[in-house]
Design goal:
4 helices; single chain; 30% helix; globular; 5-stranded antiparallel β-sheet
């Protein structure tokens, strides 16, 4: 299985809802727990772009979802101001949730800001582990939740 989806969204409050609708189309393709986690994390990253990127009405947010046999990779791209991930800001749970639920994630800046995450899929016929075990994997790597991730999607 290898498929890719892309949607372009305006930077307004309806963008997160539109992104969730794209993820709902993956029901039946992905385990329900994965669909829920992807929808939640994508909503948070799109909302961050809308709230914090300083985008104007003509700017756009690009969402890319790639399905592979062993993982789902998601990117949210905008041409906004960018930001440095830090400890949870007042009222902001987005990156905290991404850190807890994604197996890998990061933020890259090269002209545009790209916030991305990956969630591993359970083996075929295997039992799905909610959260994908990502917290343990990051702890083994010695990273703290407030450190900026440097590696890119596979």
């Amino acid at each position: 299985m290898s498929s890719a989806f892309e949607v372009v969204l305006p930077p307004d409050p309806r963008a997160a809802s539109a992104a969730r609708q794209v993820v709902r189309e993956l029901r039946g393709v992905l385990p329900p727990e994965v669909v829920g986690d992807v929808a939640l994390l994508l909503t948070e990253l799109v909302a961050n772009s809308v709230r914090h990127a300083g985008l104007g009405g003509e700017d756009r947010i690009h969402v890319r979802i790639q399905l592979a046999a062993d993982r789902v990779a998601v990117e949210v791209v905008d041409d906004g101001l960018g930001f440095r991930p830090s400890e949870r800001a007042e009222g902001g749970w987005g990156l905290y949730l991404v850190d807890r639920l994604a197996d890998r994630w990061g933020i890259q800046r090269d002209g545009a800001t790209v916030a991305w995450f990956e969630i591993d899929l359970p083996p075929r016929g295997g039992r799905f582990r909610p959260g994908g075990g990502g917290v343990q994997a990051r702890r083994v790597a010695g990273r703290r939740p407030d450190e900026e991730r440097r590696e890119g999607p596979r």
